[in-house]
Amino acid sequence: TPAETHIYSKQVVKELSLLQGSSLKNVVVKIKGTNKKATGDVLFTHFGLSGPAIMHLSEDIYDCLQNQKVILQIPFGSLSRSEVEDFFNKSRTKNISILKTLEQCTTKRIANLLLEKGKIQNKKINEISKNAIQKLKDALLGYEITVDLVQDVTKAFVNKGGISTKELSPKSMEAKRISNLYCIGETVDLHGPIGGYNITIALSTAVAAAKNIIKNNL
Questions:
Q1: By residue range, what is the domain housing residue 22?
Q2: Cα–Cα distance between 150 and 122 in angstroms, integer?
Q3: Among 51, 106, 202, 214, which has the minimal tally of Cβ within 10 Å of its Cβ?
Q4: How confident is the model at residue 63 (pLDDT cuts 50, 70, 90)?
Q5: Which residues contact residue 183 at a Cβ distance below 8 angstroms, ignoring those fewer than 6 apart?
């Protein structure tokens, strides 16, 4: 099954098309209703979402999709709740526009998008209703995006599953039950996040198997 891959979201394609090609830096992405989360960059694409945080979380997203609807909570910036509240409070004191307030918390593109989606005119912040202000804060801290599909094993960067490591000799990668049968790389139930872990697993298991094969003159 896929372990490190992109995700498809019709909501992103329809609602957030203006963000295609842009990214969020070092944000915490959560699966709503669970304790599953990942930290890293998020990239908005023409089909949904990608980037390190999405790929790290895709394994859990895939598992959750087998039993339930999956909604991701993605902050539109790296500010904490208290920092967002502080920016809004200072804006109220100065009574600056809601657009300028949002631009202090996120990118100009996202700020305009949030106003457009919320059907909020760019007025002075004190002219905006409390309900509208709260919705903007919630969106900044965790915009909810529904996942439709995870890319399958043919397109995934990394897949999970395979022969259990308990069935293999760790020094040679030879099967314990069948002599001269070696399992390496993704044939073994062993994987890690993107960033070099999986190529290291592939190379190290291959070297271990090759050394044993040469040693036994197979």
A1: 2-77+143-150
A2: 37
A3: 214
A4: very high
A5: 162, 163, 168, 173, 175, 205, 209
